[in-house]
Specification:
Blueprint (H helix, E strand, L loop, with lengths): L2 E5 L3 E7 L2 E9 L3 H14 L5 E8 L5 E5 L9 H10 L5 E8 L6 H18 L3 E5 L1 E8 L4 H10 L3 E7 L3 E8 L3 H8 L3
Antiparallel strand pairs: 1-7, 2-3, 3-6, 4-5, 4-6, 8-10, 9-10
Helix pairs in contact: 2-3
Length: 190
């Protein structure tokens, strides 16, 4: 079965080094809009913070990801945060780390360690779940076919996301990715 790991709910982590405080926020996300909104919210809530560094990964294939140093020295914040996402094999996740400067420079090595440790703490405090990869499809049938189709969908335990009844019956279905071709083949018989 095609599966992936993600967070059930937001979690937080914390790290303190030489007066600097690193507050980590790990949240489940499914779009870049959610990511931008969350980072903007943290900037507003923590307007006295020096940096809000982040990393995210989206999609069950793990191919879409980004990391931001937000003004910290190059590769000292975002990549270590992303490294924790990769180490925990997570996707559909954002980790934002808010830094309050404590008056003492940590150096690049210190920053890498601090951001990595804060992100790791947030993930160690998180509830992680394994999900089955799903795909959405739209299927149409006549009213005469509807009882048979509904029986089939119920038997196969297929989630119906929405139903539209006009001249015909239209269903938006949520199918397990590894079983979708079989289900589509069966439904195409109607």
């Amino acid at each position: 079965m095609a599966t992936y790991k993600t967070l059930v709910q937001p979690s937080e982590g914390f790290y303190k080094e030489k007066g600097s405080k690193f507050l980590a926020f790990a949240v489940p996300v499914t779009s870049e809009d959610q990511i931008k909104a969350f980072i903007a919210q943290k900037r507003k809530e923590h307007h006295q913070a020096v940096h809000v560094c982040s990393a995210f990964r989206l999609g069950a294939d793990h191919k879409f990801f980004r990391a931001s140093d937000d003004g910290e020295p190059s590769n000292s914040a975002g990549p270590p945060i992303l490294g924790q996402i990769q180490a925990f094999e997570l996707t559909d996740i954002l980790i934002a780390v808010v830094r309050y400067y404590g008056g003492t420079n940590l150096g690049v090595g210190g920053l890498i360690s601090a951001y990595r440790t804060a992100a790791k703490d947030a993930l160690e405090n998180a509830l992680i779940v394994e999900k089955v990869e799903m795909e959405s499809y739209v299927f149409s049938c006549s009213y005469a076919q509807m009882p048979s189709v509904m029986t089939f969908l119920k038997k196969e335990q297929i989630e119906i996301l929405s139903t539209q009844l006009d001249l015909d019956c239209q269903f938006k279905l949520n199918l397990m990715k590894d079983k979708s071709q079989h289900i589509i083949l069966e439904l195409s018989k109607w």
